[in-house]
Amino acid sequence: MAALAYPLAAVTGIGAKATAHAMEQKTDILRTAMPAETSYLYAPDGKTILTMFYEEYRQYTKLSDMSPHIQQAIVAAEDNRFYQHHGVDPKGVARAFVANARSSGVSQGASTLTMQYVRMALRDSAKTPKEVQEATQQTSLRKVKEMRMALDIEKELTKEQIMERYLNSAYFGHRAYGIYAAAQIFFSKTPATLTPVEAATLAGLVKSPSAYDPISSDQKEATGRRNYVLDRMAQLGYLSPDAAAAARAEPIRTRVTTPANDCASIDKRYQSWGFACDYVKNWWSAQPAFGENRLERMDKLRRGGYRIVLSLDPKVQAAAEKNVGAKENTGSPFANGIVVAEPGTGRVKAMAVNRNYSLDLSENGPSSNPEASPNIKANYPNTVAPLLGGGSLPGYQAGSTFKMFPMLAALDAGMPLSTAFDSPHRYTSQVYDGWSPSNASGAMSGRQTMWSGFGKSVNTYFVWLEEQVGADRAVHMAEQLGLRWRTDVDREHASPAKAKKWGAFTLGVSDATPLEMANAYAAVAADGRYCEAIPVNSITNRDGTPATYRTASGIEREVAKPRCRQVVSADAARAATDAARCPTGDTPAKGSCGGWSTADSVRGTVGRPVAGKTGTTDSTRSAWFVGYTPELAAASFISDPDNPFNAVGDGQSQIPIQAVANTLKEALKGKPVRQFTPPSDAIVG
């Protein structure tokens, strides 16, 4: 006979087969087990909920924050002797035994609220499918174990504690786990404000959420079940007969709420922040603090009850969105995006691109890639692809913005800013096996230093400079500043066996993301101190404590705190900044820019000291600008993510320059003007 047919005596009979160790182990789990809880992503104000992450929509709620009606209703519906028994109800067991014997099956249960809680706690703490099956399977041994553990639990927890845990674990249907979710989904209110009618409706759902569903059904069954609970509440003295009769006469009035889940359902007011939300997920999946692998980490996000505060600055984000036409220019195959990072912390302050963050691709046309299948949709106007970085996409060739890396490597190796070379229009390299790159213009020929070579973007000067310091050191510098090689070609060239011969590295033939480039240049702005990119201001556990991790040296640190290290000397970084003021039309503290530059309008637009670098690729397939002040670093690009051979053209190469300049101007409006620290005379030369 099924487990429900066993009398209470079975607790000592079959229960003896379970080892004392196993029982003690599971009892320990029950003492501490917490059900899965929804994680919340907040705007930077720490109050505005942007979206949630969950498998089971649940928010743990204290008993004191629940209406007494729901506590009374659940007792009436499931276990009217809850406050009299000690975990197992002998009368209920006997009644079920007789009823089931007469029906030759399971017609009546004997599970108390405590036993039901045991079952839910074992299910919620299960780590494998087998453990889930063992916690819920209909066997006599499982039932007896439940009884034994219920008796033990009642010695450890008060009735109020059991009631609180039960109401936070129970499933009410429509993905509502726990009373908070149920009150929200069915009635759009908090558990504290539930009326007797609403409480009875919800309590009635626990027995069979689908059979008594007041939303999907015609409410006949739901009303019948609700009225049964109301009658039981009256019999137990929780409601007067008149109040119960009045409640029975009321229709069930639901007010359904569909809770947001994941980045695609982010609040519409902040829909453009979906790309930053998506980066939070990708960043989270790489954090060892949340598990040993991606699967465990994402499970923690959806079940751990974290409170995550996004690092975006609303003012900076608004400026970034405006200056890439995030809302207006979504109909172009060319993606124009920008990322803004904070020097000294690595916190991401803005992520914007001229795309709608949406899973709905129905209005997207065919891909611009001629080799793509006709069924492949373009990435515009809607996409959830991580076009700005932080995901699996390789990025875009970044052109001459990469000249920063050999310059930093040279400065860090002791070469001064005044290092000069008579740069020809075309240079034949003996180090790189006769490779002969040329400059974009004959006007770039002549004697150059780091100031003028960087300001005019002289290819032949930087190929020569890279030869002097070693291409492998330039590649290593980029890696130290956060760049990662995501294509087979880039990985091969960056390998120790090939890096010394990667002469074209300085010309930006490798793919990079705007997130990487903004953060790399932010390290230069921070006097050579590189900070890992981080998309959050804080992460707190469900108990309100900061989420932490333990370093390899055993030090406990907060996950959301900046993680920084000195990559180059402060003097080398300051020297690189002095040279990087030349492309923007700014005036360096120590040297000469040579009379002209590639983005000389930037200083006038920003209206304060600013450094940066332009970058274009062959045939202007993509165009970049990375610019920074002491406070912010921004990287903007324009390219076709679907087809890198679809050239944006020279006419659009100014777009990233304007996007960065105007974003920095508007983001820093009203803030005190800060100066760059000049390099020492020793490194100037």
From TrEMBL:
Pfam families: Transgly (PF00912), Transpeptidase (PF00905). One of its GO terms (cellular component) is outer membrane-bounded periplasmic space. Gene3D superfamilies: Biosynthetic peptidoglycan transglycosylase-like, DD-peptidase/beta-lactamase superfamily. SUPFAM superfamilies: beta-lactamase/transpeptidase-like (SSF56601), Lysozyme-like (SSF53955). It comes from the Bacteria. GO terms for molecular function: penicillin binding; peptidoglycan glycosyltransferase activity; serine-type D-Ala-D-Ala carboxypeptidase activity. InterPro entries: Beta-lactam/transpept-like, Glyco_trans_51, Glycosyltr_51/Transpeptidase, Lysozyme-like_dom_sf, PBP_transglycosylase, PCN-bd_Tpept. Signal peptide: none annotated. Keywords: Carboxypeptidase, Cell shape, Cell wall biogenesis/degradation, Glycosyltransferase, Hydrolase, Multifunctional enzyme, Peptidoglycan synthesis, Protease, Transferase. It catalyses: [GlcNAc-(1->4)-Mur2Ac(oyl-L-Ala-gamma-D-Glu-L-Lys-D-Ala-D-Ala)](n)-di-trans,octa-cis-undecaprenyl diphosphate + beta-D-GlcNAc-(1->4)-Mur2Ac(oyl-L-Ala-gamma-D-Glu-L-Lys-D-Ala-D-Ala)-di-trans,octa-cis-undecaprenyl diphosphate = [GlcNAc-(1->4)-Mur2Ac(oyl-L-Ala-gamma-D-Glu-L-Lys-D-Ala-D-Ala)](n+1)-di-trans,octa-cis-undecaprenyl diphosphate + di-trans,octa-cis-undecaprenyl diphosphate + H(+); Preferential cleavage: (Ac)2-L-Lys-D-Ala-|-D-Ala. Also transpeptidation of peptidyl-alanyl moieties that are N-acyl substituents of D-alanine. GO terms for biological process: cell wall organization; peptidoglycan biosynthetic process; proteolysis; regulation of cell shape. Residues 48-233 form the Glycosyl transferase family domain. Residues 338-642 form the Penicillin-binding protein transpeptidase domain. In the C-terminal section; belongs to the transpeptidase family. In the N-terminal section; belongs to the glycosyltransferase 51 family. PANTHER family: BINDING PROTEIN TRANSPEPTIDASE, PUTATIVE-RELATED, PEPTIDOGLYCAN GLYCOSYLTRANSFERASE. This is Membrane carboxypeptidase (Penicillin-binding protein). It comes from Micromonospora coxensis.
